[in-house]
TrEMBL record:
One of its GO terms (molecular function) is metal ion binding. GO terms for biological process: translation. This is Peptide deformylase. Removes the formyl group from the N-terminal Met of newly synthesized proteins. Requires at least a dipeptide for an efficient rate of reaction. N-terminal L-methionine is a prerequisite for activity but the enzyme has broad specificity at other positions. Binds 1 Fe(2+) ion. It comes from uncultured Anaerotruncus sp.
Amino acid sequence: MAIREILREDDPVLRKVCHKVEKFDRRLWSLLDDMAETMYEANGVGLAAPQVGICRRVVVIDVGNGRIELINPEIIRTCGRIEGPEGCLSSPGEYGIVPRPEKARVRAQNRDGEWFEMSGEGLLARAFCHELDHLDGKLFKDLALRMMDPEELE
């Protein structure tokens, strides 16, 4: 495993729509492991492959209940709406108020290519939406109702 460089918001890779993963092999597994290690090292709760320069539909998330790996994910259902603070490892020290669903259900493949579905609410729903936005070239700032001063988080 290795810690990868996290791209900053001005990198053009972050504005690209990512390609579907077709090969489920050791190279993908290595990417997933590296992304998780990078996310934990940066004290994040999610990381998308384009944030480490890989334009593939791959996401890792951990909101405190263990690592979730999502390959070729799609949001299949949402419920409710809540506005809350959000930040991004590609925009360190910046936060905004972003509207997101209260609940979200995703369909994705695991590292072996098997399809599964998973539901989340609160922070997990927010993480699903935030990270999947990265796969379509969107940043949280694109959706923010307003940017916040970091002191407002306390």
